[in-house]
Amino acid sequence: MPEDQAESNIPIIIMSAKKSDTDKIIGLGIGADDYVTKPFSPGELVARIKAQLRRFKHLSVQKEPESIIRFPGLEINLKEYTVHGDGRVVELSAKEFQLLAFMAANKGQVFTKEQLLENVWGYQHVGDTNTITVYVRKLREKIETNPSEPRFIKTVWGIGYKFDGGSQ
After folding, report:
1. What is the pLDDT of residues 138-166, one digit of tens each?
2. Euclidean distance between CA atoms 7 and 9, whole angstroms
3. pTM for the whole structure
4. Residue 151 burial by CB count (10 A; 0-12/13-18/19+): exposed, middle or buried?
5. Which domain-ending residue is among 37, 62, 87?
Protein backbone atom coordinates (compact mmCIF):
# COMPACT_ATOMS: atom_id res chain seq x y z
CA MET A 1 0.00 0.00 0.00
CA PRO A 2 1.39 3.47 -0.83
CA GLU A 3 2.75 5.35 2.20
CA ASP A 4 0.28 8.27 1.94
CA GLN A 5 -2.68 5.88 2.04
CA ALA A 6 -1.35 4.02 5.07
CA GLU A 7 -1.74 7.12 7.24
CA SER A 8 -5.08 8.37 5.90
CA ASN A 9 -8.03 8.79 8.25
CA ILE A 10 -10.57 9.01 5.42
CA PRO A 11 -13.11 6.21 5.87
CA ILE A 12 -13.40 3.71 3.01
CA ILE A 13 -16.36 1.37 2.62
CA ILE A 14 -16.30 -1.31 -0.09
CA MET A 15 -19.68 -2.21 -1.58
CA SER A 16 -19.43 -5.42 -3.58
CA ALA A 17 -21.38 -8.34 -4.94
CA LYS A 18 -18.50 -10.60 -3.92
CA LYS A 19 -19.50 -12.32 -0.69
CA SER A 20 -16.71 -14.80 0.03
CA ASP A 21 -14.63 -14.46 3.17
CA THR A 22 -11.51 -14.23 0.99
CA ASP A 23 -12.87 -11.19 -0.89
CA LYS A 24 -13.80 -9.49 2.39
CA ILE A 25 -10.38 -10.24 3.90
CA ILE A 26 -8.62 -8.87 0.82
CA GLY A 27 -10.80 -5.73 0.79
CA LEU A 28 -10.19 -5.01 4.46
CA GLY A 29 -6.53 -5.93 4.07
CA ILE A 30 -5.91 -3.32 1.37
CA GLY A 31 -7.22 -0.56 3.57
CA ALA A 32 -11.01 -0.56 3.61
CA ASP A 33 -12.65 0.24 6.94
CA ASP A 34 -15.82 -1.71 6.18
CA TYR A 35 -17.12 -4.18 3.58
CA VAL A 36 -20.80 -4.37 2.60
CA THR A 37 -22.13 -7.06 0.28
CA LYS A 38 -25.06 -6.75 -2.11
CA PRO A 39 -27.91 -6.84 -1.57
CA PHE A 40 -27.95 -4.50 1.41
CA SER A 41 -30.64 -2.30 2.87
CA PRO A 42 -30.28 1.48 2.51
CA GLY A 43 -30.74 1.77 6.28
CA GLU A 44 -27.80 -0.54 6.96
CA LEU A 45 -25.57 1.40 4.53
CA VAL A 46 -26.50 4.74 6.14
CA ALA A 47 -25.76 3.30 9.61
CA ARG A 48 -22.36 2.02 8.47
CA ILE A 49 -21.50 5.39 6.88
CA LYS A 50 -22.53 7.25 10.04
CA ALA A 51 -20.41 4.89 12.17
CA GLN A 52 -17.37 5.50 9.97
CA LEU A 53 -17.91 9.28 10.00
CA ARG A 54 -18.14 9.26 13.82
CA ARG A 55 -14.85 7.38 13.95
CA PHE A 56 -13.29 9.78 11.40
CA LYS A 57 -14.45 12.83 13.34
CA HIS A 58 -13.06 11.37 16.58
CA LEU A 59 -9.65 10.70 14.96
CA SER A 60 -9.59 14.16 13.35
CA VAL A 61 -10.14 15.86 16.69
CA GLN A 62 -7.43 13.79 18.38
CA LYS A 63 -4.84 14.53 15.70
CA GLU A 64 -5.27 18.31 15.63
CA PRO A 65 -1.83 19.85 15.30
CA GLU A 66 -0.29 21.69 18.21
CA SER A 67 -1.45 25.31 18.11
CA ILE A 68 1.58 26.74 19.93
CA ILE A 69 5.16 26.23 18.79
CA ARG A 70 7.63 26.92 21.62
CA PHE A 71 11.36 27.45 21.60
CA PRO A 72 13.60 29.03 24.24
CA GLY A 73 12.85 32.74 23.96
CA LEU A 74 10.16 32.39 21.27
CA GLU A 75 6.51 31.34 21.26
CA ILE A 76 4.36 31.18 18.11
CA ASN A 77 0.59 30.81 18.55
CA LEU A 78 -0.80 29.47 15.27
CA LYS A 79 -4.46 29.98 16.20
CA GLU A 80 -4.14 33.53 17.49
CA TYR A 81 -1.48 34.64 14.97
CA THR A 82 0.67 35.98 17.79
CA VAL A 83 4.36 35.78 18.54
CA HIS A 84 6.12 36.39 21.85
CA GLY A 85 9.87 36.80 21.93
CA ASP A 86 11.75 37.00 25.22
CA GLY A 87 8.53 37.85 27.07
CA ARG A 88 7.37 40.63 24.74
CA VAL A 89 4.76 40.73 21.99
CA VAL A 90 6.33 40.73 18.54
CA GLU A 91 4.31 42.58 15.90
CA LEU A 92 4.48 40.80 12.54
CA SER A 93 2.74 41.26 9.22
CA ALA A 94 0.64 38.33 7.98
CA LYS A 95 3.36 37.16 5.57
CA GLU A 96 6.10 37.54 8.20
CA PHE A 97 4.01 35.40 10.54
CA GLN A 98 3.34 32.78 7.85
CA LEU A 99 7.03 32.59 6.94
CA LEU A 100 8.08 32.28 10.58
CA ALA A 101 5.41 29.68 11.36
CA PHE A 102 6.30 27.61 8.29
CA MET A 103 10.00 27.59 9.08
CA ALA A 104 9.46 26.93 12.81
CA ALA A 105 7.09 24.03 12.07
CA ASN A 106 9.88 22.54 9.93
CA LYS A 107 12.71 23.15 12.40
CA GLY A 108 16.12 22.14 11.11
CA GLN A 109 15.03 21.71 7.49
CA VAL A 110 16.92 23.81 4.98
CA PHE A 111 14.78 25.63 2.41
CA THR A 112 15.87 27.39 -0.75
CA LYS A 113 14.41 30.82 -1.39
CA GLU A 114 12.33 29.29 -4.19
CA GLN A 115 10.90 26.67 -1.81
CA LEU A 116 9.97 29.36 0.70
CA LEU A 117 8.26 31.41 -2.03
CA GLU A 118 6.36 28.33 -3.17
CA ASN A 119 5.30 27.19 0.32
CA VAL A 120 4.48 30.55 1.90
CA TRP A 121 3.41 32.71 -1.04
CA GLY A 122 1.92 29.88 -3.09
CA TYR A 123 2.33 28.63 -6.64
CA GLN A 124 0.59 31.64 -8.13
CA HIS A 125 3.09 34.08 -6.62
CA VAL A 126 5.60 35.17 -9.20
CA GLY A 127 8.26 36.98 -7.30
CA ASP A 128 11.87 37.78 -6.97
CA THR A 129 13.74 35.57 -4.50
CA ASN A 130 15.03 38.80 -2.95
CA THR A 131 11.57 38.98 -1.38
CA ILE A 132 12.68 36.17 0.93
CA THR A 133 15.92 37.96 1.80
CA VAL A 134 13.95 41.07 2.79
CA TYR A 135 11.41 39.11 4.87
CA VAL A 136 14.12 37.13 6.67
CA ARG A 137 15.96 40.36 7.49
CA LYS A 138 12.74 41.90 8.86
CA LEU A 139 11.98 38.79 10.91
CA ARG A 140 15.47 38.73 12.36
CA GLU A 141 15.13 42.39 13.36
CA LYS A 142 11.90 41.58 15.16
CA ILE A 143 12.61 38.22 16.85
CA GLU A 144 16.37 38.11 17.35
CA THR A 145 18.18 39.71 20.28
CA ASN A 146 21.11 40.35 17.95
CA PRO A 147 19.99 40.16 14.29
CA SER A 148 23.60 40.03 13.05
CA GLU A 149 24.10 36.81 15.07
CA PRO A 150 20.73 35.05 14.66
CA ARG A 151 19.65 32.28 17.04
CA PHE A 152 16.49 31.28 15.17
CA ILE A 153 16.70 31.84 11.42
CA LYS A 154 20.08 30.72 10.13
CA THR A 155 21.54 31.27 6.69
CA VAL A 156 22.81 28.16 4.96
CA TRP A 157 25.27 29.72 2.54
CA GLY A 158 24.65 28.90 -1.10
CA ILE A 159 21.35 27.18 -0.33
CA GLY A 160 18.88 29.24 1.71
CA TYR A 161 17.62 29.32 5.27
CA LYS A 162 16.65 27.08 8.14
CA PHE A 163 14.95 27.60 11.49
CA ASP A 164 17.30 26.44 14.22
CA GLY A 165 15.12 26.73 17.33
CA GLY A 166 17.24 29.18 19.30
CA SER A 167 20.54 27.32 19.53
CA GLN A 168 23.75 29.28 19.09
Report:
1. 999 999 999 999 999 999 999 999 999 76
2. 7
3. 0.61
4. buried
5. 62
